[in-house]
Amino acid sequence: MDRIDRKILNLLQADASIRNNDLADRVGLAPSSCLRRVRQLKDAGVITKTIVLTDPEQLGRGIKAIVTLKLADHGLEARRDWLQQVVEEPTVSQFYGVSGETDMVAILKVGSMKVFQEVSKRLFASDPNVVQYVSLFVLEEHKFDLAN
Fold first, then answer.
1. Is 51 within the bounds of a domain?
2. What is the CATH classification number for the domain harbouring 23?
3. 67 and 132 fall within a common domain
4. Pick from 87, 8, 2, 96: which is nearest to 47 by CA?
5. Which range marks the domain in which residue 22 is found?
């Protein structure tokens, strides 16, 4: 990747809906060359997905919770079905296995505390492998940037 590829990536991460002609103008390439570079970045797996970000408030999911979890058994067999449930849960927007004092971190977006409690009971409290979970609720968001 060269300087132009990085500039293309920065512009696309800021606004993936930018037209190819506008992108080409901003990076100083002919539209056909710019399109070829974008395709190469996709083919190489550098660009993995094009998404639309939404406003959780307007979708009725204005409460963001960060949940840290400690597990009793870390083996894949013990966690397989539970992991699948968590990954398929629509209120869970991000889910990570982490190092340190906790084993997993989940980011949930919900519309009410009642929904949060229902999801927490179903996914965390009722699973015997989850020995502890701590819920943190986002009060202020100072930075939210998905660009690398």
1. no
2. 1.10.10.10
3. yes
4. 8
5. 3-43
Instruction: Kindly report the backbone phi and psi dihedral angles of residue 96, in degrees, each rounded to the nearest multiple of 5, phi listed first.
Output: -130, 145
Residue pair 95/104 in contact by the 8 Å Cβ criterion = yes
Q: Which helix (H) or strand (E) holds 97?
A: strand 92-97
Query: Per the domain annotation, does 49 fall within a domain?
Result: no
Which pLDDT score, from 0 to 100, does residue 9 have?
A: 96
pLDDT along the chain (148 residues), means of 10: 96 95 97 97 96 91 97 88 94 96 97 97 95 97 86
* pLDDT computed for residue 75 by the predictor: 85
Residue 22: helix, strand or coil by DSSP?
helix
For position 69, which CATH number holds? 3.30.70.920
**Interatomic CA distance for residues 7 and 41, integer angstroms:** 12
CA distance linking residue 124 with residue 113, whole number of Å: 15
Residue 110's nearest CA partner among 53, 41, 44, 60 is: 60
